[in-house]
Amino acid sequence: MIYVAVLGYGTVGSGVVEVIENNNAEVSLKAGEEMHVKYILDLRDFPGDPYEQLVTHDFDSILNDPEVSIVCEVMGGVGTAYQYTRACLEAGKSVCTSNKELVAKHGAELIEIARNHNCSYMFEASVGGGIPIIRPLNKALTPERIEKISAILNGTTNYILTKMEQEGADYEETLKQAQALGYAERNPEADVEGHDTCRKIAILSSLMVGKNVDSEKIYTEGITKITAADFALAKAADMTIKLVATSNYLENGTLLAYVSPMILAKEAPLASVNDVFNGVLITGNMLGDVMFYGRGAGKLPTASAVVSDVIDCARHVGRTSIVCIWDKEEMQLADLSETEKVFFLRAALSAKDEIVNAFPGGKLIELEGAEEFGYFTTCMKEKEFDAKAIVLGDKIHNRIRVA
Ligand code: HSE
Question: How remote is the CA of residue 303 from the centroid of ligand 1, in Å?
Fold first, then answer.
């Protein structure tokens, strides 16, 4: 018998219990042994819940129970979750998590602790919700030198941008709708400012290069400045706008990693990733492009990813289940301001001559009756663009990087 403990009985935690117990025949068959949840750790009680008898408030009873070999940390945060994870790994219990904040911050260290204690630290659910992406990077794509990852990694912002495009609505109005439907948190900052996406691309980038990519050093821009006018102009150019995380190996051996809204051609692979879905496009030097698509958030898709890790651990009790190369050594990140790209501008018609003179050779996008126009610059360094944009000041109403 394999016994599992679940730390945190929130949305994902209750989903993990549901997947293990409701899909027990499947889960036990794949694990090679019957599997059940023995403890659920939470500060609260859950009277009337079908699993209320499993609820405990005492972490030590889990830590000291030799029957528990696998622990799911689905509490979130980087304080208690970190202490409990360390304690479990040091006791030789594998830990499976959806906690991207903790993985991004302490992934390298926790993987090493697990390796030294013949167990595993697994985090399939931390990126892309139910999409298998960590396991493919660690297993299927191992012969590749991954050259680039471009991804939509946040369901909330992708839902908001999709609705803005489809309904011609503005950001604030769409955010309120998303909150009413339960897609966006009451405090949506981590999603809309791009921090959630940033942590996820830091995790993918660390696996891509095998060294630690510090999420705090990744340039991150959210979606709060995108307007209905940006979408109208993008549509006229047969393009759309997405919050894209990019990680790109440069020829000088550094990694260019950033999160930013991007305007991209309608036929680009990520352009068709809509609503709460996520998409990850990976370019390998031998394989070429491969794309992963699916539900990037939600109780059962995320829980299913956690349980896929639990099953892997059950198959490898007493040893590390998957080779995961993520050293503590820090990866050097490229300076975004030195890199080149095309920029899309939205500006008042009254500033048209000035904008065209400042960025000669670009392409105008004009809409009948509109007070603003769109403009694609030629390809230039970010720092050259910024120097010109500062002079133009608020004549530029928005700028979006072109994919
Ligand atoms: N807030 C996240 C999202 C949840 O919207 O994608 C999944 O990590």
Answer: 13
Atom of ligand 1 nearest to the CA of 100: 8
Q: Secondary structure of the chain: what % helix, strand, coil (to 5)?
A: 40, 25, 35
Quick: pLDDT tens for 356-366.
Answer: 999 999 999 99
Contacts of 382 (CB under 8 A, 6+ apart): 336, 337, 338, 339, 340, 341
CA–centroid distance, 197 to ligand 1, in Å, is 8
What pLDDT digit, counting tens, does each position of 12-71 carry? 999 999 999 999 999 999 999 999 999 999 999 999 999 999 999 999 999 999 999 999
**Residue 42: how many CB atoms within 10 A of its CB?**
18
- Ligand 1, pocket-test mutation among 126, 134, 156, most atoms within 8 A of CB: 156
Q: What is the pTM of this model?
A: 0.97
Q: Whose CA is nearest to atom 8 of ligand 1?
A: 297
**Three-state DSSP class for 74?**
coil
CA distances in angstroms from 66 to 48, 63, 80, 93, 106, listed in the order given: 29, 8, 22, 9, 26
- Angle at Cα 203 formed by Cα 285 and Cα 77, nearest 5°? 170
Closest ligand 1 atom to residue 183 Cα is: 5
Dist. CA 271–CA 263, nearest whole Å = 9
Instruction: Please name the amino acid found at residue 267.
Output: E
**Which atom of ligand 1 has the smallest separation from the CA of 156?**
5
Q: Helices 155-167 and 228-236: crossing angle, nearest 10°? A: 70
CA–centroid distance, residue 53 to ligand 1 (Å): 30
Tell me whether residue 286 is exposed, middle or buried, using C-beta atoms within 10 angstroms of its C-beta: 0 to 12, 13 to 18, 19 or more.
exposed
Could you report the per-residue pLDDT of 67-108, keeping only the tens digit for each? 999 999 999 999 999 999 999 999 999 999 999 999 999 999
Report the alpha-carbon distance of residue 191 to residue 4 in Å, rounded.
31
**Residues tagged active-site:** 200
Give the residues across from 242 on adjacent strands: 262
**Which DSSP state fits 136?**
I
